[in-house]
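The data are quoted verbatim here:
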Amino acid sequence: MAAYVQRYAEGHPRVADAVTAVMLLAVFLAGSELTVPGSRQPGRLWPAVLLAGISCTTLLWQRSHPRIAVLVTAACVGAASGLGYLLTPLIMAPVMAALYWLALGTDRKTTRVFTLAVLIQLVTTAVIADPADHPLAYRTIAPTAWVLLPVVTGGAVRLRRAYVQAVQARAEAEQARAEYAERTREEEARHRVAEERMRIARELHDVVAHHLALANAQAGTAAHLADTSPDLTRTILADLAGTTSSALRELKATVGLLRQPNDPDTPLDPSPGLARLPDLVTAVESAGLKVTVTTEGEPRRLSPGVDLTAFRIVQEALTNVTKHADAAAVHVRLVYAQDRLNITVTDDGAGKTPAPLVPGTGFGLIGMRERAHSVGGDLDAGRRPEGGFEVTTALPLYSESPEEDREA
């Protein structure tokens, strides 16, 4: 029942204030009949009715205008004291209610100023202008206690409400942070999925493009030499079988990344790196292209991501030479510096048809440049003034992206 009344009062403040005003009017009139033995009782009732009506009517605006309500009710109570009415809690009920709402709805400084003013006014009036000559304690100590009681109560309620609001605000902020973190995790997960798809697509492009181009060159060379050099043709065809077998293995390894972790068919072979460069050179040379590899500086151990990137860039560069340059020879130069690996792939462009590649275009060059950037490196590609085409990349010895190493 009490909870229902409280909810109703919070939902209908005007009704609650009107009921309070009527109740305090009755309390004020009841208090006007009280006195102490030996004191003179005021003979007329109408002043009490008038003062009660004015002060209690003012309480209808105690929420919106608490300062005015305190001033009016204090003036009415002071007037009642000057007429000889005893300052009991019943007579002071309107000003006590006004002080409660003042302490509840304003700051501490305002509450202190108005409380002090009300105390001075009531005590001074009761001491100087009381015609009934009530005991001094009833004119000083009692009014002070009844004035301070609602002020302390209202301040305590205000502090509790502020504390509850702070707790709720903190809870809402924590909930908002949790929701934001959840959204961020979901976005990060989607971002990682997209990156993984791009990485797998890049791997598939490199594997398929290189091996198909190499197989095409080997098949063309074998067909050209089939009548004149049968033994060499058989050697090239054997190399062609090895090329297609290697393509199948790498395709299986790359597509196997899409399998579930508990799938027994998931390949466990490591990602290719510069350690497989001799096999790559042998396969390219079987297509009729002369490949030389030089290494400068002391070879250093590369992080998995950089090792894979270096191998794929060399592989793609050789594939482009095989497909487009119609060159006779290509030179791969590896330079190990203090903290970087510089790779240069240069072809002589001595074929009949000039290389159709334009620097900065083509999916092969785009893929190589993206690979270099993914580990914190750079890549340049373009024609040489003396002829041919050159791809140059500078890679850090250790990837700047831990994710790249984990993926590798």
